[in-house]
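Each record in this resource describes a single protein on a pair of labelled lines. With that in mind, the following record should read easily:

===
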Amino acid sequence: MRKLLSDRRVAAAVLALVVLIFTPLGAKMSLQRAAEKVEEQFFTGVDGRGAIADYLSDSANAALGLVTVGAGYDDAAGETGDLRAARSALLDVMDGRDVSQYAEANLRLVQSFRALRDVLLAVPLTEEDTRSLELYVSTFEGAQGAVNRAGYNEAVEDFTENTLGEFPAGLLGGLLGVDPPEKFQ
């Protein structure tokens, strides 16, 4: 065995085999870790900006406030129930780390929130409920605006274009099945 390993051709073949096996494996692990690091910014924030996950929590809190206002008006019963369910769905998603599930739940929350808001704007509210409505709408829309300015999607696009879109990372990533980070849409 010792004599076989001291043969330069055998040693070169073993070295080539090791390089051919471990280089792609290392490249895949490195690219996948980099993609996961970008996706983690959904939960931690980008360049000192707030995290989308936190803004969605703020939106869920504002939705709860609007549900409370809507519960006092028979004309808003359907939309109040829809918003309550949409908020619950978002809270359920928040236990996980799937960006696309967050996006789907948030879209439902936005639609339900705005539907209840529109109904409440059309019914005579008490003075206190009018102030509460204004506060919850302002908080909700502010949080949704912050989601759009959070920089996460831009970080995903930058990684996709400047890392996975460049040679050789793009070629290796595609061949090795590296999953790009998900955009929040």
Q: What stands out?
A: The two ends are 59 Å apart (CA to CA). The chain is about 80% helix and 0% strand. The chain has a mean pLDDT of 88.
